[in-house]
Structure formats: C-alpha cells, structure tokens
Automatic annotation (TrEMBL):
Annotated membrane topology: Peripheral membrane protein
UniProt main location, coarse: mitochondrion
Protein name per UniProt: succinate dehydrogenase
Enzyme class at the top of the EC tree: oxidoreductase
Pathway stated in the Swiss-Prot or TrEMBL entry: Carbohydrate metabolism; tricarboxylic acid cycle; fumarate from succinate (eukaryal route): step 1/1
All residue ranges annotated as the 4Fe-4S ferredoxin-type domain in the record: 175-205
Domain of life: Eukaryota
Gene source species: Popillia japonica
Record NCBIfam families: dhsB, PRK05950.1
Amino acid sequence: MGTLNQIRLVSRRLPVHHGIFSNTRCFSTNNVLYARITGTRTFKIYRYNPDTPSIKPHVKEYQVDMSKTGQMFLDILIYIKGYLDPTLTFRRSCREGICGSCGMNMNGVNGLACITSVKDKPVNTIYPLPHMYVVKDLITDFDQFYQNYIKIKPYLIRNNLDPNMKNSIPQSIRDRKKLDMLYECILCGCCTHSCPAYWWNGDRYLGPAALLHAYRWVIDSRDEGTQERLDELRDKFSVYRCHSILNCAVCCPKNLNPAKAISELRLLLSPLKHKEKPDMQ
C-alpha cells in the first residue's frame, strides 16, 4: 500500500511540457518546465441539490492546499470530496482524457477536468457545462446530446453484404487516413455546449460533436449509406445553423476541429463536391 501511494505521489509531480498539449499531463525530455503550484488557492464551485429545493443554486468557495493534491482540476475535486465536503457530486472515470466523463466549465472554458491544469492565480472557478439541465452540482443531463448523436446513425450502413466479408470490410490505407481527427471524438460534450448556435437551437441543430461524427461516417469508404445520411441533413437547422464561431475547435480536449467537418458536410450537400469512390471495392 505504501508503494502504491508513492507511485501516485510521483505521478502527480511529473513535469509538464508546455507545447501543443500544454493542458495535458505528458512527459518530454525537451523544454521541460516544472510548473507545480504551491500554497493555498481558492476554488469557487457551482452547487445545486434537487433534494433541497429551498436552497437555490449557488457558488461555494473552498480553500485548498495545493501541496496536498495534484495539479489538475479533477485532482482538486477528488481532494475536496474526500477531505472537505463529501456532498460534492461530479462525474469521473479514467483520469486520462479518454472516457469524456468529467467535462465541465473551468475558468470560463469547457474541458475535461482530468487533463486541465489549475491556473496559478488566487481564484479558479468550476461550473457545469453550460446550456444543460443540471442534475446535481457538476452533473448535467446528456439526454438531448445523445438524442442528436443517435440521429446521425453512428454505425456502418451496408446495402449489399458480401458473405466473404463476415469478419471485416477491407479499406485502403489512404481511405483509412481520412478518418483521422474524426474518430478520436469521445463525446464529452465540451464542443457542443460551447456553441452559441446550439444554445439557441439545441432541439433542432445537431451540434458540433454529432456533426463531426456524421461526417466521419459519411466519408468512411466502407459505408454505403452516404446519400441516406446526407438527405437526413438537408434542412435549415441540422448543418446550416453553424456560424463558424469556432468555440468548438478552441475547447476540444482532443484537438479536433468540428467546424471543419461541418464545412465539409456542407460541400457534400452541395453540387460542388462528391464522396470519392473507395480504393478497395
């Protein structure tokens, strides 16, 4: 047990490389900077409990000694829940930017709490993702988000099943590369809930995450439902509510660009561009 605690302590003190992944925990031998925050910091956290309707939603302050915890926002939340306030409620799972459970708004920007580092300033703020029904504290209701995701049919559509392809469908390396920077989306909701167009028309505009996945399936060389998918998007709201504000690209924790995928969908919906034939039939 002592060894495990030592490993955890060392992992929280790994150097941070301030490059393209400046907000993530990573290790590099080049330009390594030790940016560990020390001293006491104030964290203002949104609180709401539906079981106590007499207490309105409010912001509660917590004083945290940074020498006793890690440098990520999720480390702070776990410390507060474990040592200061066990009633604090939030989602979390992998702690390494893979599952997308801990999406929230930190210092005014949506992101994953597990890979977003605390700012070296007196006060940091933590709120739930904006424009969502709050279930409790930092937990939000993803029903509408997942309903929009279901609408884009996130699976391969095959019209003619070849009995010789029971286990796999061949795909060239070139066709496979078209899916890069698309399939990595983890559906954390950070991009969708930073989008003003989604705030205004969340029931009709599918949002950046769903449309990124829509393009991922449209462009897949193995998919035979391209026309069906595009026809589903031919209305004034599904795609065309995007105003290229680019909040989605700025806050995406996987460094994806949903706005670019949406612009590609618009081209495919127009006579200007058509899906290429697959290299392997």
